[in-house]
Amino acid sequence: MAKEINPKDTTRAMAYELWMQAPNPMVTFFKTIDVTNLIRISKKQHLKFNMLLDYCIGKAAADVKEFYLLPVGDKLIQYDTIAVNTIVKNRNGEVSSCDILYSNDLSTFNQDYIKYTAQVTDSCQDLDLSADSMVIGTSAIVDTEIDGAVGMNSGIFNNPFMIWGKYKKKFFRYYLSISFQFHHTQMDGAHAGRFLANLQNVINDLG
Fold this sequence. Notes:
By secondary structure, the chain is of the alpha+beta class.
């Protein structure tokens, strides 16, 4: 469920005043994370690496209350749930967008991921949950090793967004460079830093 709230009734009141009309309110962090545990689980349990990472993103975000607020247009919207977006190649060879509702249960999230990405692949129709959930956008450029990427500031799409490329192996561990873009009205750097720390901890503890 999504509802408009008065920014003055939230901890983001000052940020709303400062950043809603800013020419570029988006902030991007770069970080390299250790994904060794995800690689091991993916191979051992035959689970998709991208699904596991999307699940960890959702779990890490769910513990940061600022993720449940989002500036939409000139309004501040509060959500009860979080979804993670993934980009899929459809049967026409083009890309489609698929939102997966975050569930704390990995088995449920995996089932939804498989079901809805297959649906979007076959139908070539985007699955959009943004009317009801705060959606974290993602884009995986899996064929290329990248050091980072900055998303666009459209002034329309204010959702937090993550981009990553191909993971790298160093000795016996695997590392992934990611970028995390967020709207400064939604959260401050400290909140984004907490989310990224959560993400590494969730990855390490999974399984």
